[in-house]
Amino acid sequence: MPLTPLSRSLLILALAGTTLTPLCRTALAQEAGATAMQDATGSSTMLDTIVASGGSGGVITADGYVGTSSATGTKVDTPFLQTPQSVSSVTQAQLEDRNPQTLTDALAYTPGTRVGGYGFDPRFDSFTVRGFDVTYTGIFRDNLRQPGAGSSLFKTEPYGLEGVSILRGPSSALYGASGAGGLYNLITKRPTDTPLREVEIQYGTQDRIQGQFDFSGPVNESDPVTYRMTGLARSADTEQVGVPDDRVYLAPALTWKPDEDTRFTLLGEVSRIKTGGTAAYYYDASTGKVSDFFAGNPAFNDSVQNQARIGYEFEHRLNDVFTFRQNARLSTLKTDADWAFAYQPNAVDPLLLDSSAGTFEERLTAGVIDNQIEARFDTGALDHTLLVGLDYTKLRYRSLNGYGVSPPLDTRDPTKGRPVDPIPFQTRTDQDQWQLGAYVQDQIRYDAWTLTLGGRHDWVKTDTDNTTLATNAMTTTKQTDKAFSGRIGLTYEFDFGLAPYASYSTAFSPNAGVNQETGAPFKPTESTQQEVGVKYLIPDLNTLLTAALFNIEQKNGLYYEVVNLPSGPANIQVQRGKLRSRGFELEGVTTLDNGLSVTASYTYTDMKILEGPEGTVGNHVSSVPMHMAALWADYTLPEDGFAAGLGFGAGVRFIGKSYGNDTNTLHNSARALFDAAVHYDFAAIDKKYEGLKLQVNATNLFDRRDAVCSADFCYRDAGRKVVGSLKYSW
Asked: pTM for the whole thing?
C-alpha cells in the first residue's frame, strides 16, 4: 500500500543521514506483543523488542487485573514502565468480576476518574479525570477519536469491550483532538484464534432483563479468517419514572491474516438505545435542597438513539525495519428526544411548579482515518522506535431544536404524566469540521533510559450555519484553527522493576457544537501538563504500583452552566477562561496465585479557576472533589478446599466533599458507596457442569442517594442496582 506524500516526506526527513541497523524481530514476537521473561537473576523484565498487533487498537497485554503494556500511550505497543505518563487499564478480568452495566461503572475504580458528577443519568457516559470533563474530547475507540457534539454522544456497551486503556494528561502530540485530563481508549472485542462460545441471561432490579451472547473463533480449519459476533438485548426500567434503559446491540468482527506479517480486522456495531429526555430531580432554589421527585414529565420524556459504526485496522510488516498501519472508522448516530423540566414554583399556586419543555433531533456523522509508518532501528548504542503518521477527521453535525412549555408539575402527584402538544422545531444548526494532523514520535532507548519525543501539527476548519426556521434567516460562521502539540518524556528502568519518569505534554482540541445562548461556535481548547511519577512492577508478584504528581493548565474548556434561554433556565455548554489542576495519584493492582485480585487508588485534586466569570476567580471548580479513593477485591476459594468454586468480591468508592457551583456557595457532602459480588463455578460440583457460572453483582449496596450538584444543577446519586447472571461457556 503506497504511502501518502506527506507521510513519505516526513519519514525521509526523520531518517535522513541515519544509518539503519534493523533490530532483530521475529514473527513470534510480533504476535506475542508485550511479554515478560525471566532474566538470569529470576526477575521479571519487559522485553524491549516489541512489535505487536496491538499497535493498531491499543489491545492490553495483561495477567488478571494487571495490565503491563498497550499501544494507547504511544500508538505502538509499549510497556507501561516505558510510557512517560500516568497509565491505567481496566482489563477483561476486571470487567468479568464487576459486570459493569455502563461505561462509568467500568471506570469507577480507576484513579482520578470522577463518575456520578451528574448523579443518576443513563443518557450519557459522562465523567471527568483530574477535574476535566473528557466526555467530548477524551473518548477514543480502538485508538481513533470518537467525536461528540451537543447531545450527540456515542453510548458504549461494556459487554462489547475487551478492556479500557487510560492515558492521563494532555496527549495531542499523537492523538490530536484530546482534552486536558487525558484519553480513555475503549478496546473493542476482537476475533480469537481459539473458539469462544458464551451465552448469558441476566435479571436485576427495576425489572431489568437482559440476554447476551459472544461467539468467536476460526471460520474453518483451512482459511486464515477468524470471526466474532457479540450481541445483547435488554428491557429495563430505572429508579426514575418515565426513564427506561432499553438496548439492542450487535457487534460483528472479522480478521483476515494471510501471513505472519499481514493482518486486517473489520469491526462493526449497530445499536438502539431508548431512555429518557431528562433524568433530573427537582431542585428547590429557595431551600437549596434537591427534592425526591422527578423534575421532568413522564408523558413527554422520550429519547431514542440509533448508532452504528464500521471500521478496520490494517497492519503490514514490510521488513525488519518498517511496519505500515492504517486504521479507519465511519460512525453515525441519530437522536430524537423530548424533555420537560420543572424549574420554579407557580406564582398563583406554589404547590404547582412551572415547567419548560423542548424537543430536539440531532445527527452526528464522523469519519476518521489514521496512517502510520513505524520504523525500528538502531544508531550506534541508541535503539529507536520511530513513528510517523497522518490522520484526518471529518465531522458533520446537525441539530434541530424546539422550545415550549409543559403543564405545571403538581407536587402532590409528581409521577403523573402531563400530555404536551407536539413542539415544532424553531432553530437549526449545521456544522462541518475538518481536521488534518501530521505527527512524528521517536522512542529512543539507551541502556535503561527511554527518551520519548513527539510533535504534531493540526489544521482545523469549522463551518457553522445557524438558521431561525420561522424566518429562514441564516447566519454563517467560518473558523480556521491550527496548532502545534508536543510531548517530551524521560524514563529510567531499574533492574528490580522500578521506573521513575518525568514528562511535559500539551493538547489542542477543536470543539464541535455551538453556545446555545449566543449561537457562536466554540473555540479550540488548549492545555499543558508537567508530570513526574514512578511505576513499580514487582518481580515475580504480578503487582503494579504507580504514583504521579501533575500540574495542568487549560484555557477555553467546555463546561455546563445554567443559562436563561427563551424557554427558561437550561444547563448548556459554555467556555471558560483558564483552569488549573494540581494533585497526585496512587494506584496498585495485583492478581495473585492464591485467587486474590485487588485494585486500589487514591487521588488528590486541587482544581481552581484562574480566569473566569466574576465571582468565580480563585474558586474551586464545581463537583471536583479534592479527595477520592477506591478499593475493590475479589477472592475465589481454592479448588481443592472447602466451598470450592465459590468466590466473593467487595468494593468501596469514596468521593470527598466538593462544591455544587463555581461561586462555591453550594456544597456536596462526602460519601462512600459500597459494591459487592458473589460468584459460583458449577464445575466444582461435577465436570459435566464445566462452563456454567452464576454471579450476582450489586452497586451502591446500601442505596445511598445523596444530592450531587454541578454548575448549580442538582441530581441524586444512582440508587442500588442488583444484577444476577447465569452464564454458560463452551
From this structure: 0.89
Backbone angles phi, psi at 158, to 5 degrees: -60, -30
CA distance 29 to 482: 39
- Classify 189 in phi/psi space as left (phi over 0), alpha (psi -120 to 50) or beta: beta
Average pLDDT over residues 662-689: 95
Q: Are 181 and 168 in contact (CB under 8 A)?
A: yes
465, 430 Cβ separation under 8 angstroms: yes
Please provide the size of the chain in residues: 730
How far apart CA 138 and CA 145 sit, in angstroms, is: 8
> Is pLDDT above 70 for 10?
no
Helices (H), 289-448: none
CA angle 228/49/21 to nearest 5° reads 125
- Can you tell me whether residue 607 is helix, strand or coil? strand
Widest CA span in the chain: 84
**C-beta of residue 460 within 8 angstroms of C-beta of residue 482:** yes
Q: Which ranges of 310-429 would DSSP assign to H, the alpha helix?
A: none
- Asked if residues 381 and 411 have their Cβ atoms less than 8 Å apart, the reply is no
Q: How many whole angstroms separate alpha carbon 244 and alpha carbon 276?
A: 6
Q: Checking phi first, is residue 566 left (phi over 0); if not, alpha (psi -120 to 50) or beta?
A: alpha
What is the C-alpha separation between 284 and 278, in angstroms, rounded? Answer: 17
CA proximity to 372, closest of 16, 18, 21, 57: 57
Full set of structural domains in the chain with CATH: 5-572 (2.40.170.20)
HEC secondary structure over 32-50: HCCCEEECCCCCEEECCCC
Q: Report the chain's mean pLDDT, rounded to a whole number.
A: 89
Angle at 237 between CA 236 and CA 242, to 5 degrees: 140
25-29 long-range CB contacts below 8 Å, 24 or more apart? 25/49, 25/51, 25/320, 25/376, 27/260, 27/261
DSSP 471: T
**DSSP-assigned letters across all residues of 20-89:** -EEPP--HHHHHH-S-EEE-TTS-EEE-S----GGGTTTPPEEETTEEEEESTTTSS-EEGGG-SS-EEE
Least confident of 47-56, 152-161, 309-318, 719-728: 47-56
Give the closest residue to 52 by CA, choosing from 390, 439, 317, 319: 317
Cβ neighbours of 238 (radius 10 Å): 22
How far, in Å, CA of 176 to CA of 508, rounded?
A: 7
Strand 66-70 relative to strand 61-63, pairing = antiparallel
